[in-house]
Write a structure and sequence with these properties.
Elements (H helix, E strand, L loop, with lengths): L1 H21 E7 L5 H11 L4 E7 L4 E7 L5 H10 L11 H5 L24
Antiparallel strand pairs: 1-3, 2-3
The structure holds copper (II) ion.
Length: about 120
């Protein structure tokens, strides 16, 4: 009986270790302004395979903990871009960006076309 119990414990430890091995924590930049942005950004990525998503409005730093066997860093960044926020790797669609509330219209770091600012050359 004791032997079975210890085998069971070993199996549990092994299982939790393999789960742990798939969990990854990454950080990357996401552009936005305020608390509303924070909700939008964090809500966009929260799902079963993303256990934690935290965005810092001051540093624009996003920290995500996710199951790398189910979702990739790229997929997560694409989800954020899809709700209107540029990330380090992916840019939001112009249309989606323009639909954001006024307070959320962050300075875009890498827009391809921005006629309003094209004259500001240094
Ligand atoms: Cu905002």
């Amino acid at each position: 009986m004791k032997k079975i119990k210890s085998l069971f414990t070993a199996a549990l430890v092994f299982l939790s270790m393999s789960v742990f091995a798939q969990t990854k924590t990454d950080s990357f930049k996401v552009y936005g302004n305020c608390g509303m942005c924070k909700n939008r950004i964090e809500k966009a990525v929260k799902q079963e395979s993303v256990t934690s998503a935290l965005w810092n409005a001051d540093t624009k730093e996003m920290v995500v903990t996710y199951d790398s066997s189910k979702i990739s860093n790229d997929d997560i960044q694409k989800k954020i871009a899809a709700v209107g926020h540029d990330t380090e790797k992916y840019s939001a669609d112009n249309k989606t960006y323009k639909k954001l509330p006024g307070c959320c219209l962050y300075d875009r770091k890498k827009t391809d076309k921005n006629p309003d600012h094209s004259s500001h050359q240094h």
